[in-house]
């Protein structure tokens, strides 16, 4: 009986000393990192640009296109939220990025990233082959700011930039659901895109 009690005590001690599994990012944490990196604006620019510029939507008036956007945006935001959740993996990684963004070097770095992301999105929406200018994240940074960036990029949180971005495609079932809502709420058939 004493051996059993000792085994239970050892097992309990190991359980308490083992590192806790990192929590999956909450919706609020994902929205926070999307804002930090400029994806909150980019997501809307992609959908608005696609609907306003694509030939498939030219037959619709502004009100109809606005209705389509209002149905498609929430679905696309959900897909992107899951993609960011998968990319960052846990709330601690997002917290590290948020803290980094509050340092002098981090603030300049994420501002540069945000600028690059939005320039790339705008270029894609306009259908231009023009690539945005090379990032200038490090221009104007002093030695301390450069060190902040270099140290962060070597951290596990900084390694997020080395990962492949998860799938952002809307599934056929989601497309069908959006198409049904567009038909019901907008009174039009959603074009195949």
What does this structure look like?
The protein is mainly α. 67% of the residues lie in helices and 0% in strands. It is built from eight helices and no strands. Helix 2 (27-37) packs parallel to helix 5, helix 3 (39-53) packs antiparallel against helix 4 and helix 6 (104-126) crosses helix 7. The model is unreliable at 1-20 (pLDDT under 50).
Secondary structure elements and their pairing?
Layout: H1 2-17, H2 27-37, H3 39-53, H4 62-88, H5 91-101, H6 104-126, H7 143-154, H8 172-186
Q: What's the number of extended β-strand segments?
A: 0
The H-and-E topology, N to C, reads as: HHHHHHHH
Helical percentage:
55-70%
Q: Count of helical segments?
A: 8
Features:
67% helix; 193 residues; 8 helices; disordered N terminus; mainly alpha; single chain
Short description:
By secondary structure, the protein is mainly α. The protein is built from 8 helices and no strands.
């Amino acid at each position: 009986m004493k051996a059993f009690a000792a085994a239970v005590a050892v097992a309990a001690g190991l359980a308490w000393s083992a590192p806790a599994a990192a929590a999956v990012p909450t919706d609020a944490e994902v929205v926070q990192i999307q804002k930090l990196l400029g994806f909150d604006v980019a997501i809307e620019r992609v959908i608005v640009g696609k609907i306003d510029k694509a030939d498939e939507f030219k037959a619709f008036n502004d009100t109809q296109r606005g209705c389509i956007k209002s149905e498609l945006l929430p679905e696309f935001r959900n897909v992107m939220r899951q993609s960011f959740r998968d990319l960052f993996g846990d709330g601690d990684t997002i917290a590290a990025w948020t803290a980094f963004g509050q340092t002098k070097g981090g603030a300049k770095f994420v501002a540069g990233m945000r600028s690059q992301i939005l320039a790339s999105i705008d270029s894609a929406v306009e259908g231009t082959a023009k690539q945005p200018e090379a990032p200038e994240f490090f221009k104007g940074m002093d030695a301390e700011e450069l060190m902040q960036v270099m140290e962060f990029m070597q951290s596990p949180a900084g390694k997020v930039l080395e990962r492949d971005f998860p799938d952002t495609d809307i599934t056929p079932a989601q497309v069908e659901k959006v198409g049904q809502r567009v038909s019901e709420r907008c009174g039009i058939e959603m074009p195949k895109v």
